[in-house]
Amino acid sequence: MQKNEIDIRFRNGIVFNVAIKGLSILLGLITVNIYLSYLGGSNYGLWITISSIASWAAMGDLGVGNGLRNELAKAYANNDTYKQQELISTAVSTLTKVSAAILILLSATSEVLIYFGILEHSVRGALYVTNIFMCINLVLGIFSSVAYSYQMSYYPSLSQLVYTGLQVFIVWLLVICGAKSNLLLFAIVNGASNMAAHGLLIFALRYKTKLMFHFRKVNPVYRKSIMGIGTQFFILQLCGLVLYSTDTVIIKGLFGNDQVTAYSIITKVFDTGDALFSILLISLWSAVTYQYSLKNFRWITDKIKGLLKIWVIYSAGVVFVAVFFNAIIRIWLRQNAIEYGFGIIGIFAIYSIAGRFGAIYGNVANGMGIIKLQLLMSVIEAVLNVPLSIFLATFCGMGIMGVKAATLVCNTGANIVIPIYISRLLRNKLKSNEGRDT
User: Fold this and answer.
1) What would you measure as the largest C-alpha separation in the chain, in angstroms?
2) Alpha carbons 337 and 342: distance in angstroms, whole number
3) How far apart are CA 137 and CA 412, in angstroms?
4) In the chain, what is the straight-line distance between the N-terminal and C-terminal CA atoms, in Å?
5) Per-residue pLDDT tens for 325-365?
């Protein structure tokens, strides 16, 4: 495929993602009110905790999805159709076996959390249903990586919109019908909606690419290549799990369900801004892999510069939201509104600004296959996060603000070191290319 065609796909991907993600974000804002209306504040806090635990499964795919994403993008750049089909089939078959093992491990973890009283016995049914659906959707979700590799990043975005839309519609019907709060039923609706959306994604990809996906065929050579870089991504995922997915569990254990709800609401607001900016990054990873394999370093450098200009505008928007945060909450949640202090709002705002800056370089590093440096930084962050969260939240009396402050502190090193490394590497690559040209 020609370079300019890939560039067109990259730009089109951003345009389509802006439209689709915009709808998803608006729908996401509606979901909180609808879910709170159906579940109530306490059950909603429980659901946030359950879904956080189940999301561990998505982190535990041994890096198969990300390994496939890089290897498939390279095969796509070389126009090797046979290898593309073999890579996809191998990844699906491998991930099916991994998913079965994850379900066993996740079930054991759930029982430990119930045994020690971190979760109530009454949520066992909802927890297991969520775990099962999560593992099924983990396998089906491999096709999001396929779409990213083909520069069709808006396909997964559309699939996510369908998933959220189905879930919201069904829960809205339950509210209209006056159904009582039921976590088990809510878990079934959530998992089935996600499964249906993944099915539509697979159908669309087969129609668009004309590739045949053989779900039982495994090529040992390609499995090794996928797992080679995939294992490194897996370790990154585990570190990310500790860093990002333990917050609600820590808050649940220290302060109870109501504080989980308060934390999830402020997270939802700032995550909305993060999601808006992340639209620009959806296509970046695989596009960088493609361009880096062709030694088109100028393209990568130019894209970083362009994204940094947008990041400055985004940062100003985050500051604006922080200043008027409580007013926004009152308009959004009305009688369910919670008043937040300036300290926790400021921590979330700084985290959001710094996080999007780091995300630009993180996606570039992933696309270039620069994983070892990220691994080092992530391991340090993962080791520090939980004890620092508990220390700041309890011993320093910061409450839920301390949990977020700990994540911010842990992230600071990576947000400084990785951008410096990437900038120097690209600068050296460009000088080397210019020297050969002359």
Assistant:
1) 75
2) 16
3) 33
4) 28
5) 999 888 887 777 788 889 999 999 999 999 999 999 999 99
